[in-house]
Design brief:
- The protein has a five-stranded antiparallel β-sheet with strand order 1-2-7-4-5, with no helix packed on it. Strands 3, 6, 8, 9 and 10 form a five-stranded antiparallel β-sheet that branches.
- It is an alpha+beta fold.
- Helix content is about 35%, strand content about 35%.
- The C terminus is likely disordered.
- α1 runs antiparallel to α3.
- The protein is elongated and about 95 Å long.
């Protein structure tokens, strides 16, 4: 909705101004039918001028609304710039497809810490209430340096030993890379029974804590498209063969 207002509010106000101007200068049948019902026969034009003045006031209100939207957007952009300069920006995340050393498909989540506080990552999972895909962190890199993971204590969605330093002015943005295995838990709406794979379009959410004297939780989200096999389909196929 906000995007629509940003793109079309000015043009809408201009169109309204043109319509009001045409009605005021040339009039139309509805105008001639309306004026006798609201203005007395003895009126010498003052009633019509009041209606025009009221209409211009409505247009002025619409124009003020459009101006406020533009000012609000400018203030928001300035605030984001100030937050970045002060180191109060929110960390961001994006994803890309990759593979491990054995060629198995993996998802790489890259988290960039634009905040001055260090970021301690805790979990990564699908944001839906009933997740259809789960992630397991296989490898973790912080600023391109791999962090060892406890191989015997790897759980779905759990991020261990991953702390991203805070951003320092004039230095590269600190980041972490999570190499994750994705596994389908529910069948996809877009399913291809020929190869037992489904397309999953999900939102992944990574939770963490910005640690400081005033620590606060933070969530980074990104959209992910995955083509995954559903173990349930493979199990059903094996039963059918027997």
């Amino acid at each position: 909705m906000r995007k629509i207002l940003d793109e079309y509010a000015v043009w809408g106000a201009l169109f309204l101004f043109i319509v009001i101007s045409c009605v005021t200068l040339y009039g139309f049948d509805a105008t001639y039918q309306l004026l006798p019902t609201v203005c007395s026969p003895e009126d010498k034009g003052s009633c019509f001028r009041e209606w025009v003045a009221a209409t211009s006031g409505w247009f002025g209100g619409a124009l003020a609304f459009v101006t406020l939207l533009a000012i609000r957007r400018q203030i928001k952009l300035q605030q984001r710039q100030i937050d970045f300069q002060l180191g109060d920006s929110k960390p961001t995340m994006y994803a890309m497809l990759t593979a491990d050393d054995y060629g198995e498909p993996m998802i790489r989540f890259v988290i960039e810490n634009h905040n001055r506080r260090m970021l301690m990552l805790s979990t990564i999972a699908e944001a839906a209430v009933s997740p259809s895909v789960v992630f397991t962190v296989r490898r973790c890199f912080v600023n391109d340096v791999e962090r060892p993971l406890p191989m015997h204590h790897i759980f779905e969605g759990l991020i261990q030993n991953c702390i991203i330093p805070g951003r320092v002015e004039g230095h590269p943005t600190p980041n972490a890379s999570l190499i994750c295995k994705a596994q389908a838990k529910l069948p996809s709406d877009q399913w291809d029974p020929a190869d037992e794979h489904g397309l999953y379009v999900i939102t992944a959410a990574c939770q963490g804590i910005l640690a400081d004297e005033d620590s606060k939780p933070v969530i980074m989200k990104t959209r992910v498209h995955l083509l995954l096999p559903w173990p349930g389909a493979l199990f059903s196929k094996a039963q059918d063969e027997h």
